[in-house]
Amino acid sequence: MYSNVVLNIFNNPKNTGRISKPDGIADCYNEDNTAHVEFSLRIESGIITDCKFRAQANPYIVAVCSTITSMMRGKMAAMVFLDPYSIKSELGDEMPIDISFCIDCIKLAINDYKEKLEKSSK
User: Fold this and answer.
1) C-alpha–C-alpha distance, residues 51 and 26, integer Å
2) Which helix H or strand E contains 4, and what residues bound it?
3) What are phi and psi of 4, to 5 degrees?
4) What is the pLDDT of residue 108?
5) ∠ CA(95), CA(111), CA(85), 5° rounding?
C-alpha cells in the first residue's frame, strides 16, 4: 500500500517535535478530522532556521510533513513556495492526497509569524 520511501520516512521522520517559543505556529486538522498536524517555526532575520512538526496521521502525511520541514530550512519566510511535485519526487513519485492539507498548514504557520511581526512593529 505504501512505498518503501514513505514507510522509511514514516518510521524515521526528521524534524519532529515542537520548537519552544516558536516564531510561527499552526495547529491543523484535515476535513474529516482523521489527521492532526502542528508545525512550529524559528525565524531569524526573515530566514527559517528551524522547522518542526508533530502529527497524528497516516504514513503519507507524516512523510509529507517530514519532507516539508527539511525543505523549509534556510528559506526566506516571505518567499516560501512549496511545489507539490517537488514533494512528490522526494516521496518516490507518490502523490499523497493530503499533500495540500500539509502545505496549507505550513502556510498558516508562516502567516502566524507574519501577523506577529506586523503587530510588534505597530
Assistant:
1) 12
2) helix 4-11
3) -60, -35
4) 96
5) 20
More confident residue, 82 or 48: 48
Using DSSP, state whether 35 is helix, strand or coil.
coil
Hey, is 120 helix, strand or coil? helix
Q: What are phi and psi of 12, to 5 degrees?
A: -140, 60
CB atoms inside a 10 Å sphere around CB 28: 17
For residues 14, 39, 96 and 30, what is the CA-based torsion angle, rounded to 10 degrees?
A: 140
Q: For the segment 4-56, what is each residue's pLDDT rounded down to a tens digit?
A: 999 999 999 999 999 999 999 999 998 888 899 999 999 999 999 999 999 99
Q: How far apart are the first and last CA of the chain?
A: 51
Q: Assess contact for 113 and 77: CB atoms under 8 A.
A: yes
CA distance 118 to 50: 21
